Amino acid sequence: MNIEMIVQNTNTGKAYDVSDLISDIEFSQEIQDNPGKLTFNIQDGLNGDYISEGSPVSLKVNNNNIFFGYIFKLGKDEKNEVKVTAYDQLRYLKYKDTYVLKGLTCNQIFSKICNDYNIRCKVKFSSNYVLPARVEDNKNLAEIIQRAFDQTLIDTGDWFFMRDNFGTLEHLNVWEERTTLAIGDESLLTGYSYESSIDDETYNQVKLVKENKETKKREVYIVKDSKNINKWGILQYFDKVNEKMNEAQIKERAEMLLKHYNKPKKSLKLECIGDFRVKAGCGVVLVIEGLKNDVPFNKYAIVLSVSHKIENNKHMMSLEVEVV
Questions:
Q1: Residue 281 near residue 161 (C-beta atoms within 8 A)
Q2: Residue 295, SS3?
Q3: In degrees to the nearest 10, what's the CA dihedral of 104, 106, 112, 117?
Q4: Domain 177-198+264-323 CATH assignment equals 2.40.30.150
Q5: What pLDDT, in 10s, does the model give residues 207-252?
Q6: CA–CA distance, 61 with 5 (Å, rounded to integer)
Q7: Is the dihedral of CA 180, 183, 186, 188 positive or negative?
């Protein structure tokens, strides 16, 4: 395995190849709005002046671009070993601001915020769905974008997300990120744990409320699945809707929410031999004989999070996938 890591001194601009000094590399990503994270240890053989908070760092493995980001944390132990934590560009969207959003799609919201904060970005796949107007007051920037993704998914079924690609934050569509990679009994898999749950983000009743300023009355709209209520009890999703929405729009939204949430959430954690083709948001094919009755066999699952670890020249990965 050929590992190349370059760090740059922010004061002098000089770049250093530290490939032979590093150990315990871990690179992790999530499909949600958290930044990609790189941690590693480095022997302090260059007097420590070459690396500091804010230093750019790049990682390539076998000539493939894996990570580009900036150092945010530095620590040192009694062995004179420096522990480093770096994040990609998404880290710079963890600050709060206020936005009035009207007549925009999720990719337009993504581009607007990235451009406002000088984040290098690219829309690879776009949405035609114009989101309802809303005010995001004192909200985390990444969460504003994520909320646009979430609402687009619920309302249209199109699953968008953002992921940094070696210094460019990309707007992507999950359904276009499928790989040919199979994970199973005879391919990469070393262990797994499976869970089906109604404890989190499962709802069999949706209650939407509209404050009607003209009549000065509260309008309540409820849709439910009586069969699942008998099985699970009432699991209610509640929200207030925009006063400009009419009855048909509110009922349609309630039905969409029920369709999205009225099912157990299935999660699967996998321990595997490492393959850098596995990224947050990509699709992999599951071929796990022991789970044929629980998850689709020879079908795609979406990678929600992945952690790649390189220790002693051995590459392993841990990932969580969502069965769709």
A1: yes
A2: coil
A3: 150
A4: yes
A5: 999 998 888 889 999 999 999 999 999 999 999 998 888 999 999 9
A6: 9
A7: positive
